[in-house]
Design goal:
- With 204 residues, the protein is mainly α.
- It folds into two domains: 30-133, no CATH class; 147-193, no CATH class.
- Helices cover 81% and strands 0% of the residues.
- The protein has helices at residues 2-26, 30-69, 75-119, 122-133, 135-178.
- The longest helix has 45 residues, at 75-119.
- It comes from Roseateles toxinivorans.
Length: 204
């Protein structure tokens, strides 16, 4: 019995020792932490855009619903009501975006950081940073918006007729189910951006 207890004690000690070594090995070095922080800094604009999109998407849906509901408002009050709603939604987007952005930036090191540590070694992180800093990458990033706009405009031009027809059919079907007289069908989007309140002035 004493022999078995001694074996168990030694085994437990070895497990603890190996566990401590594994934890030590898993902890990134100071140099690697610095590289990860630099990668996260390059990613911050994307992180902030993600946070804002999470707020703008439900706000856009709310604006679309409000646009339909405005048809029930008396014509002489419709414009003022629309402006008031837009101001309320814009205020919500600005305030909620700031809160969400700050939280996203705060969470990134503990969420994305460990993923970078697991998937990339120091040399790979250095290569990644070199790519972020390269003139080729900067040139490509500058073209990103132009390429998206060009494709979006072409897509809208090609699909406008098909989308408007489907929207009209859907609107008529919904109105029929509700027993309502159908309102004029909404038109297809004319820009590549989602329908959101104007927020350009709020960007920093």
């Amino acid at each position: 019995m004493k022999f078995h207890l001694k074996q168990l004690t030694v085994a437990a000690a070895l497990l603890l020792a190996f566990g401590a070594q594994a934890q030590t090995a898993a902890a990134p070095s100071a140099a690697k932490k610095e590289l990860i922080a630099k990668v996260l800094a390059f990613q911050q604009p994307g992180i902030e855009s993600l946070a804002r999109a999470l707020v703008e998407q439900p706000a856009a849906r709310m604006m679309q619903g409000a646009g339909a509901a405005l048809q029930q408002v008396p014509a002489d009050k419709r414009e003022a009501t629309a402006k008031a709603i837009e101001a309320d939604v814009r205020k919500f987007v600005d305030e909620a975006s700031a809160l969400t952005r700050d939280k996203a930036v705060q969470l990134a090191p503990t969420t994305i950081g460990p993923m970078l540590d697991e998937k990339f070694n120091e040399d790979e992180l250095k290569q990644l940073i070199a790519w972020f800093e390269s003139p080729v990458n900067k040139k490509y990033q500058q073209m990103g918006g132009e390429m998206q706009n060009a494709l979006g405009q072409k897509l809208v031009a090609e699909m406008r007729g098909a989308i408007e027809g489907r929207l009209k059919t859907l609107e008529q079907g919904v109105a029929k189910r509700l027993g309502l007289s159908p309102q004029p069908a909404p038109t297809a989007p004319t820009t590549t951006k989602p329908v959101t309140p104007s927020t350009s002035a709020a960007k920093k």
